[in-house]
Amino acid sequence: MTTIGYLLHKYKDPTRAFAVIFCEETDNEDKGGGTGKGLVINAISQMIKCDQIDGKNFKQDKSFAFQRMSLDTRLIAIQDIRQKVDFEGYYSTITDGITIERKRMDEIHIPYSRSPKICFTTNYMVQNQSNHARRRQRVLPFSSHYTPEFTPADEIGHRLFDDWDRSGWVSFYNFMFSCAQAYLTTGIVELPFTDTMRLKSIKSSFGSDFKEWFDHYRMNGAKEWTAFKDLYSHFLSSTDNNEKDFSKKRFKKGLEVACDQFKLAIEDRNQGPAGGREIRIIS
User: Could you tell me which of 69, 75, 55 has the C-alpha nearest to residue 3?
Assistant: First the structure.
């Protein structure tokens, strides 16, 4: 409710510029979709001017990227963005405002204070390895209560928006106003990442092989001192990868990012006369 309220309201804090990301909690992207992300965008668009963009084919750095936008647009919803979207490429749009460029017309720059808010929807996790990325994201996961096979219409017995009488619209408006009130009272209530979401984020950055290996490692033996080279060799052999597929440098980075996701610390020490380093992971 507070997230909907934030997207409805005009206020933008210049010290806390971020985009809202509607994602899915399920770790299986093949089973994603139909959870209600687009439905929430549709609900908001009943209240304010919202421009919806096909995220699969959208490139924000191309000419005329935002030419459909008008000065009264309050929300830009970039729907179903690609798995490896360049989130850093949106930093200036999120923090500095938006430039509207149209053919044979002067460009118009809308400053941050008056520019639309940005919302992404995706079946994946947007990469958030750096503190810069995390600071510019507010992630709202959708559960798998609704699916393509079980829709809100199946549950409540009628379609939303175009199948309402007057009392239906009154109830809808009252709910949306209460969302704005909740936001003004508490700000956005941020949900903590679940283990599923953390693993999904690791998978997005380093692949399913590393995600599955790390999940097993953190649950079995991560607290024991192990030579880093042995750990790396075990990862390669257990996942049928080789050094060309997954370099030692990438493996080390994956460990650091994965431990950061789970609020774990990596300790290391010298192995002794044999040389090399040993590591272990602790809370």
Answer: 75
